[in-house]
């Protein structure tokens, strides 16, 4: 923070506190010329104003709040760039990655700086890590039957996964529906854990340069026919031999390959959409969706619980 804003904030803050102090002192002084306990000469609706001093309990409480405010400003950040005598921070600032956050946490601990967010993380780790460690000893398929574990997994899913897959886990265009039985890489407990731990990188190549527009049209027609759609039989027949280059990933029958993450093209479930135009875009320009790794963000024990929740959605 610049010196200008430090001075500006300090003047406003301290000016308010000392302004309240002088206002209180002025209210405590008897400048009316009327003795305490005597009428002020004002009355309204039969009620007469008496020159009474402020209640002592109220006055003392006001003084206490002002002293508390000054002590707080000395100990904690609050006056611009002044960090306070305790070296306390609510969190490490200007962090842009998990790596930077971890480095800042270690540095703050070495320098004896009190970072409230770090302390809360340590408290949470001490309290909850043993619970997650116990959950991690139970196979995903079995843990998916534990109602309490599923509630925990659901909350972590909402915090970390719902941005892409939706709060109901039904996905959206380009992000898989996790509630059905259609899995690109496999829907077993171990495979779900593997996906969340390591992430996934799609690698659907573009075929426009190799096949040309006419070739793309023929292949798309054949692919759409695999799922029982009404297609141009003549174009589809021409697309069948061209599909040979696609079969390396999707298989000769188009049923996909979970080892590669290649989708089944015969079930009429489409990640990016099933219209002729969208499938044409997919074949022409490829797809390169990314599922990020959550290993560093959540850790394997918590991932195990999230995977159990995801597994429960489709089983």
UniProtKB/TrEMBL annotation:
Co-factor remark: Binds 2 heme C groups per subunit.
Needed co-factor(s): heme c
Pathway connected to this protein: Energy metabolism; oxidative phosphorylation
Keyword Manganese: no
Pfam families, alphabetized: Cytochrome_CBB3, FixP_N
Domain Cytochrome c intervals: 148-227, 234-314
Keywords, ordered alphabetically: Cell inner membrane, Cell membrane, Electron transport, Heme, Hydrogen ion transport, Ion transport, Iron, Membrane, Metal-binding, Oxidoreductase, Repeat, Respiratory chain, Transmembrane, Transmembrane helix, Transport
Chain residues that bind heme c 2: 204, 246, 249-250
Subcellular localization: Cell inner membrane
TM region positions: 7-24, 60-82
GO annotation, biological process: oxidative phosphorylation; proton transmembrane transport
Positions with a binding annotation for heme c 1: 161, 164-165, 291
Chief localization: membrane
GO MF terms, alphabetically ordered: electron transfer activity; heme binding; iron ion binding; oxidoreductase activity
Gene Ontology cellular component list: plasma membrane
Subunit structure: Component of the cbb3-type cytochrome c oxidase.
PANTHER family hit by this protein: CBB3-TYPE CYTOCHROME C OXIDASE SUBUNIT FIXP (PTHR33751:SF1)
Family as reported in the entry's similarity comment: Belongs to the CcoP / FixP family.
Function according to Swiss-Prot or TrEMBL: C-type cytochrome. Part of the cbb3-type cytochrome c oxidase complex.
Protein name in UniProt: Cbb3-type cytochrome c oxidase subunit
Lineage: Bacteria, Pseudomonadati, Pseudomonadota, Gammaproteobacteria, Alteromonadales
Gene name for this UniProt entry: ccoP
């Amino acid at each position: 923070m610049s010196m200008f804003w430090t001075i500006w904030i300090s003047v406003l803050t301290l000016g308010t506190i000392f302004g309240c102090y002088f206002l209180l002192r002025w209210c405590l002084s008897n400048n009316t010329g009327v003795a305490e306990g005597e009428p002020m000469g004002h009355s309204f609706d039969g009620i007469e104003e008496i020159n009474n001093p402020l209640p002592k309990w109220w006055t003392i409480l006001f003084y206490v709040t002002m002293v508390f405010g000054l002590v707080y400003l000395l100990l904690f950040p609050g006056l611009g760039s002044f960090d306070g005598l305790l070296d306390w921070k609510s969190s490490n600032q200007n962090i842009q990655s998990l790596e930077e956050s971890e480095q800042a946490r270690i540095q703050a601990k070495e320098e004896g700086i009190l970072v409230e967010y770090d302390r809360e993380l340590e408290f949470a780790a001490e309290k909850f890590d043993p619970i997650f460690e116990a959950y991690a000893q139970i196979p995903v398929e079995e843990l998916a039957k534990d109602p309490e574990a599923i509630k925990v997994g659901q909350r972590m899913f909402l915090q970390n996964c719902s941005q892409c897959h939706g709060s109901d886990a039904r996905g959206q265009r380009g992000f898989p529906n996790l509630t059905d039985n259609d899995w690109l890489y496999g829907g077993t407990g171990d495979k779900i854990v593997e996906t969340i731990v390591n992430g996934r990188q799609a690698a659907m190549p573009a075929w426009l340069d190799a096949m040309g527009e006419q070739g793309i049209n023929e292949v798309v027609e054949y692919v759409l026919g695999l799922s029982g759609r009404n297609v141009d039989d003549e174009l589809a027949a021409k697309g069948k031999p061209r599909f040979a280059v696609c079969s390396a990933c999707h298989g000769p029958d188009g049923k996909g390959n979970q080892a590669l993450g290649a989708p089944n093209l015969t079930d009429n479930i489409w990640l990016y959409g099933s219209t002729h135009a969208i499938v044409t875009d997919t074949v022409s320009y490829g797809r390169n969706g990314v599922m990020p790794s959550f290993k560093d963000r959540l850790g394997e024990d918590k991932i195990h619980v999230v995977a159990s929740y995801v597994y429960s959605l489709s089983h």
